[in-house]
Amino acid sequence: MEYIILVMFGMVIGSFLNVCICRIPKEESISYPPSHCTNCNHRLMPLDMIPIFSFVFLGRKCRYCKEKISFQYPIVEALNCVLYILIFSKYGISIAALKYCIFTSILSVISVIDYKTQYIYRSTTIFGAICGFLFLVVQFIVYKNGAFDSIIGGIVGFLIIKIIVVITKGMGDGDAEIAAVCGLFLGIKGILIGLFLGIIIGGIIGIAVIILRLKKLKDKIAFAPFIAIGAFISMMWANGILEWYMKLFL
């Protein structure tokens, strides 16, 4: 029963994330006007907005203008469900689970927007930083620790990517900002592992798309998704990765 509720909750939040993904680049309010077709602007009814199911039952078309609906919608909704299930499977019903669900949702919005537009909007990183600081305060009040580690993690995350930006010109300041947000949520150990994984994964995929001629060497490749992937892996399995590394090399 808990997982059924979690799946429903994950899909509903995923639907809201799609609203953010579509509206933030247009600098539109995420709360008004109500949900509507992006092609004909017809207001959507409740039956049009059932996560995943409406996409299937409507045949991937708007009920009113028959414009095709992007696969982004069910993918984000389904992915959000899966990520929430993984988080709750590890952390149970806890402050940590709530913290990491919010963190993951923020990363999802930033990543998809960056993938689509090659731009990280400061409003998203500011919101992420505010959430990170709020959970930092909660963690300090409840557990009496973690605040210093989170602050240092944010600073370290920002500085690592900022140095790469200055040296290579291959990233933007938005990447440094999202790294800072990740550091606030993950702490110093988590952000170091997360950025290492993100850079490795990004490098491998970047080389692959160039070899396959999907991108040219001079083309921009969104890096926020790789930071997000590295951060999520670190969030879930940092201790295991560190133990494996220590056994392998030390």
Automatic annotation (TrEMBL):
GO cellular component: plasma membrane
Segments passing through the bilayer: 6-24, 93-113, 119-143, 150-172, 178-211, 223-242
An example Gene Ontology molecular-function term: aspartic-type endopeptidase activity
Gene Ontology BP, a term: signal peptide processing
Secretion signal span: none
Superkingdom of the organism of origin: Bacteria
Domain (Prepilin peptidase A24 N-terminal): residue spans on this chain: 8-90
Prepilin type IV endopeptidase peptidase domain ranges (all copies): 101-207
Main location: membrane
Membrane topology annotation: Multi-pass membrane protein
Keywords: Cell membrane, Membrane, Transmembrane, Transmembrane helix
Keyword Membrane attached: yes
Cell compartments where the protein resides: Cell membrane
Alphabetical list of InterPro entries matching this protein: Prepilin_IV_endopep_pep, Prepilin_pept_A24_N, Prepilin_peptidase/N-MTase
Keyword Nucleotide-binding carried by entry: no
Family, per entry: Belongs to the peptidase A24 family.
Name of the protein this chain belongs to: Prepilin peptidase
Originating organism: Clostridium neonatale
Phylogenetic placement of the source organism: Bacteria, Bacillati, Bacillota, Clostridia, Eubacteriales
